[in-house]
Amino acid sequence: MQSIEQISHDEYQMTADWLRSQTKHRPQVAIICGTGLGMLADALQHQESFAYSDIPGFPVSTVQGHAGRLVFGELKGRACVCMQGRFHMYEGYSLFKTTFPVRVFKLLGVKTLIVTNAAGGLADGLKTGDIMIIKDHVNFPGLVGLNPLSGPNDDKFGPRFPPMSGCYDKDLRCLAMDIGKQLGVSGLMHEGVYAMVGGPNFESIAEAKLLHRLGVDAVGMSTAPEVIVATHCGLRVFGLSLITNKVVKSYEDLDSANHDSILEVGQLRSQTVQQLVTELVSRMDINNTTTNTAI
Ligand SMILES: O=P(O)(O)O[C@H]1O[C@H](CO)[C@@H](O)[C@H]1O
Ligand SMILES: Nc1nc2[nH]cnc2c(=O)[nH]1
């Protein structure tokens, strides 16, 4: 079990207040950039950015490909905040710390969270470079009690037992698929189930076969805790995985996953993912939220 080193409401509030005092931007959409996808923030106009190390209470990024900056700005006139770098359990952070920014975003007035990640493809139909819109997740750490909502519930954020069915907003998933068609990239686009594992090692072949048999389409080491915390506090969520590698599922396959080529695939698809997210933000119903009631 994780140690329950809970973060108080006041600590989230203090970080949100500090950010409010430093920038005039009032974001309605937050975007978390996955490994190799930090360029999503480059599309923001009228940027103001803060190194994580300068933000009170924020953890710092330790993974290559995660710049460690919070970037405020606008996408087609819509106020956004972008995390250029996320926090992972395998870095040694508690799940409360890995998800810390999500509650800060809620306190800043964000209504929609867009999560992106690099993931290994397990489904036969997924190729390297494909984009998988996340329709659901399996939170493996959560199944054994490692959950960012463990410990006393903070009712100011949401209920003790939040439902997770429907946590990836259906309207946004449909809109993303339509945008993919209009951008001429529907051949790259799929919908599927993402599984979070703890990492930092990539899967053994037996683990890969197991995940595949369980119905997992893509696997990574992030995202599910952020989505759980966002859903708990009533944020609408959209998620996408860039398939950066095919997970090795056969003892005859001599290939193996590595972080450098994962970063390269991010680079290769940067423009497409950027266009997709920009269009999604500009065309989403900005005032629509989930039915989950919270502050
Ligand atoms: O999930 P993101 O942060 O996109 O990164 C994925 O890629 C990294 C491994 O190369 C791991 O951190 C994994 O989770
Ligand atoms: N666990 C895991 N995470 C990844 N992130 C990017 N690719 C992979 C992968 O194959 N497995």
Observed structural traits:
binds guanine, alpha/beta, 9 helices, binds 1-O-phosphono-alpha-D-ribofuranose, 29% helix, 295 residues, 5-stranded mixed beta barrel, Rossmann fold, globular, 22% strand, disordered C terminus
Structural commentary:
The chain has 295 residues and is an alpha/beta fold. The protein has one domain: Rossmann fold (3-Layer(aba) Sandwich). It is built from nine helices and nine strands. It has a five-stranded mixed β-barrel. The longest helix is centred in the N-terminal third of the chain and has 14 residues, at 9-22. It is globular, with a radius of gyration of 18 Å. Homotrimer. Keywords: Glycosyltransferase, Purine salvage, Transferase.
Question: What would a concise description of this structure say?
Answer:
Helix content is 29%, strand content 22%. It is α/β, with parallel strands linked by helices and 295 residues long. Belongs to the PNP/MTAP phosphorylase family.
Annotate the secondary structure layout.
Blueprint: H1 9-22, E1 29-32, E2 45-51, E3 69-75, E4 78-84, H2 95-98, H3 100-108, E5 112-121, E6 131-139, H4 140-143, H5 170-182, E7 189-196, H6 205-213, E8 218-220, H7 224-232, E9 236-246, H8 259-268, H9 270-283
Parallel strand pairs: 1-4, 1-5, 5-9, 6-7, 7-8
Antiparallel strand pairs: 2-3, 3-4, 5-8, 6-9
Helix pairs in contact: 1-3, 5-9
1-O-phosphono-alpha-D-ribofuranose is lined by residues 34-35, 63, 86, 88, 117-118, 199, 220-222, 259, 262.
Shape: globular
**Helical residues, percent:** 25-40%
Uncertain runs: 291-295
Q: Which ligands does the model contain, each kind named once?
A: 1-O-phosphono-alpha-D-ribofuranose, guanine
Largest sheet: 5 strands, mixed, barrel
Query: In the CATH hierarchy, what is the superfamily?
Result: Nucleoside phosphorylase domain
One letter per element, helices H and strands E, the order comes to: HEEEEHHEEHHEHEHEHH
Might you state the CATH topology name? Rossmann fold
Distance from N terminus to C terminus (CA atoms, Å) equals 29 Å
Return the domain count.
1
Query: Class in CATH?
Result: Alpha Beta
DSSP summary: helix tally: 9
CATH architecture heading: 3-Layer(aba) Sandwich
